[in-house]
Specification:
ten-stranded mixed β-sheet, about 475 residues, SBP, about 40% helix, signal, single chain, 10 strands, alpha/beta
Length: about 475
């Protein structure tokens, strides 16, 4: 999923149908190795470091890249690869695919992984499991390397706050570099809302009132991808954080006892029960992929979708030129919420990883350093309609309506930015178990109380499962 959904992830992006068939526990056993997480082992591809080559790439050494070819496509990577090829005298072996996990899990198991990977999409690898079993390169050397545009600054100094933390898994080492900076929320056509005289609401009760008007106009208020129901969690989980505060969201991430039994969870899940009970979801959503969901929405059959800011690029083939894309911030119960209206779910996304057992991990980190250059961030934002994780990289650029709205929402949120790690740390729990519960809730098969009870049990079961690596907010 991007994410997607973790993020996506959301996680997060144009994903192949179906989830990775092999469970994370199999990945753990397949990836177990005797060398553990020794990220200090010097790769054989290491060359001589210099001002022009601060990581010490060995010129002429082959480099293999596997890239998720989803909503962002893979042309932006090819642009960075061209710069790498010219500097280091090779032609990177490039594979663009939507089946990252199925194609690469056997290669990790046999210790023959590619060097550089965009680990995104529904069929992505379990990054947490790979990190815990010592299969990923610690990217700290990249963070401490000088930037291409200003050698007086380290890479870590130019990243948007939270980018480093997004790539950590319960320790100071960084194993995933999330390149895109994604704003999540309920996306809608500003043109449609203006024509109908609708105003994006701030509370659950006001949203329910708006939904009644939207339905009366012959439009479904919401649609969602039933094939990937965790998209709904982009809003749902973070609405829990808005109502109950960051501590409520962190408790869920940490698998704390009773984390799903709070008043904040009850308020949010009861709201979704009400949406379902009133028929405010487009009929047939339960059978849709994310692309089908977006198409129904851009064609005017539904007014809003929970998605990430990549949607402007991903849905471009069906989005009318005058759609005027906008994003709504998280809604909640009202003045009693722990966080104000304007609170946003935003996070670095599109995770790139480098294999420690690859033939050229140093080259993999250097390719990421090239991607962070002004030339490549400008290319990405102009071509993909997405922000990057580099501070101020979009300044001075002509932004699209959706990106303008997302950028404004991010600035308005200030420090009130939420980011659940559930989809990163416990992919199966979020994407499958809770995702299926959410699907049952939205289709009216279960009520809020049952969702809460089963969600808590799933969290408890995950906590007790010794085969699942555990993580905590630092």
């Amino acid at each position: 999923m991007g994410s997607e959904i973790n993020r996506r992830d959301a996680l997060k992006r144009a994903m192949a149908i179906g989830l990775l068939a092999v469970p994370a526990t199999s990945l753990l056993s397949a990836c177990a190795s005797s060398d553990g997480g020794d990220s200090t082992k010097k790769p054989s591809s290491q060359g001589t470091k210099s001002a022009d080559n601060p990581l010490g790439v060995n010129k002429g050494t082959a480099l293999e890249a596997f890239v998720f070819k989803g909503g962002f496509g893979d042309d932006y990577i090819k642009s960075a690869e061209a710069d790498y090829n010219a500097k280091y005298g090779i032609t990177i072996k490039h594979t663009g695919t939507q089946a990252i996990g199925p194609k690469l899990q056997p290669r990790f198991a046999s210790s023959t992984p590619p060097d550089f990977m965009d680990n995104s999409g529904a069929d992505n690898l379990d990054t947490a499991a790979l990190a815990k079993t010592g299969k990923l390169q610690d990217l700290t050397p990249l963070l401490d390397a000088p930037t291409i545009d200003d050698p007086s600054k380290k890479v870590r100094d130019v990243l948007i706050a939270g980018t480093v933390e997004q790539g950590q898994f319960g320790s100071k080492e960084m194993y995933a570099f999330n390149y895109a900076f994604t704003v999540y929320g309920s996306f809608y056509s500003n043109k449609l809302f203006k024509e109908k005289g609708w105003t994006y609401p701030q509370t659950f009760s006001d949203m329910l009132a708006l939904c009644k008007k939207i339905k009366a106009a012959g439009i479904a208020p919401f649609t969602y991808p039933g094939k990937y129901p965790y998209y709904v969690h982009f809003d749902l989980l973070h609405q829990i954080g808005k109502v109950g505060g960051k501590e409520a969201l962190n408790a869920i991430d940490n698998l704390d006892d009773g984390a799903f039994k709070t008043d904040a969870v009850k308020e949010v899940i009861t709201y979704y029960e009400e949406l379902a009970g009133q028929g405010y979801f487009l009929q047939g959503s339960e059978g849709m992929t994310h692309i089908q969901m977006q198409t129904a929405w851009t064609q005017g059959r539904a007014a809003m979708v929970a998605d990430g800011s990549w949607v402007e690029n991903e849905a471009a083939p069906t989005m009318p030129k005058d759609f005027d894309l906008a994003v709504g911030s998280l809604i909640g119960s009202g003045p009693g919420d722990k966080l104000p209206f304007g609170t946003l779910y935003a996070a670095a996304g599109e995770p790139f990883i480098v294999a420690k057992d690859g033939k050229n991990p140093t080259g993999g980190m250097e390719l990421l350093r090239i991607m962070l250059s002004k030339k490549q961030t400008t290319n990405f934002t102009n071509a993909i309609k997405s922000l990057t994780c580099v501070q101020g990289a979009a300044d001075g650029l002509s932004l699209t309506p959706g990106l303008t709205s997302a950028n404004a929402a991010l600035k308005a949120a200030g420090s009130n930015v939420l980011n659940s790690r559930l989809q990163d740390w416990y992919k199966k729990l979020n994407n499958e178990t809770l995702g299926n519960l959410t699907l049952d809730l939205l289709t009216g098969k279960i009520k809020a109380a049952e969702w809460i009870d089963k969600a808590q049990k799933a969290s408890d079961d995950t906590k007790k499962d010794s085969s699942v690596p555990k993580f905590k907010h630092l």
